[in-house]
Amino acid sequence: MKISVSHKNAMRFEAKTQKSSFIIDCPQISPIEYFLAGIITCSASDIVLLPKNHDKAVTDLVVDGDVVRDDDHPRKFNTLHLEYTFNSDGDDTMASRWVMASLETYCSTINTIRDTVAISYSVTHNGKKIKDNEKMISGGGSKIDMGDIESCPS
Questions:
Q1: At 124, is the secondary structure helix, strand, or coil?
Q2: Which domains does the chain possess?
Q3: Structure pTM?
Q4: What is the spatial distance between Cα 154 and Cα 145, in angstroms, rounded to a whole number?
Q5: Are 113 and 152 in contact (CB under 8 A)?
Q6: What are residue 63's DSSP bridge partners?
Q7: Residue 141: what pLDDT?
Q8: Which residues contact 112 (CB under 8 A, 6 or more apart)?
Q9: Given this model, what pLDDT does residue 136 score?
Q10: Half-sphere exposure of 53 (CA within 13 A, CB side)
Q11: CB atoms near residue 66 (< 10 Å)
Q12: Within 10 Å of residue 8's Cβ, how many Cβ atoms?
């Protein structure tokens, strides 16, 4: 993976990837907010795509992230809580497994930070809370095999 970032003007930068480009406007959105949005989008894309392996579909997906950062510089993430809310035609067990597969195996951004950040999550599926403030075990992730998924390239 290769990305090039160039200064445009004031505190605006252009990020160029091998496939596209986008503007980072620091007064409006900080790099750390882009980083958190990338973490959340990585997992959200898994939650949309994993059910397709079971001929299921997810709708109305919202993933909220809440980070507590260290007070001292470099102000690293200390804790991250992810709140998944979605509907699907799968059962609660499947919904829970989709989230766990994303967190434990497929989402490379979460697995990049999990050794240094305490990560927890909650899941509301079809209007019912099925997981509440579950803690992820830190470490290198696990090999939950739910098959290959088409995903956002990492």
A1: strand
A2: 29-135 (3.30.300.20)
A3: 0.85
A4: 18
A5: no
A6: 84
A7: 46
A8: none
A9: 84
A10: 16
A11: 11
A12: 12
Cα separation, 144 vs 106, in Å, equals 9
**Phi then psi dihedrals of residue 64, to 5 deg:** -100, 135
Q: Which one-letter amino acid corresponds to residue 3?
A: I
Closest CA to 80 of 21, 136, 127: 136
- The Cα–Cα gap between 127 and 84 comes to 11
Contact criterion met (CB below 8 Å) for 124 and 84: yes
User: pLDDT tens for residues 7-21?
Assistant: 999 999 999 999 999
Q: Is the peptide bond before 51 cis (omega within 30 degrees of 0)?
A: no
Phi and psi at residue 142, to the nearest 5°:
-135, 175
Half-sphere exposure in the Cβ direction for 55 (13 Å, CA): 0
Q: What is the spatial distance between Cα 1 and Cα 15, in angstroms, rounded to a whole number?
A: 13
Instruction: Supply the angle between the helices 92-101 and 31-49 in degrees, to the nearest 10.
Output: 130
Rounded to whole angstroms, how far apart are CA atoms 124 and 103? 16
Q: Side-chain half-sphere of 39: how many Cα atoms within 13 Å?
A: 23
What is the rounded CA–CA span in Å between residue 23 and residue 69?
25
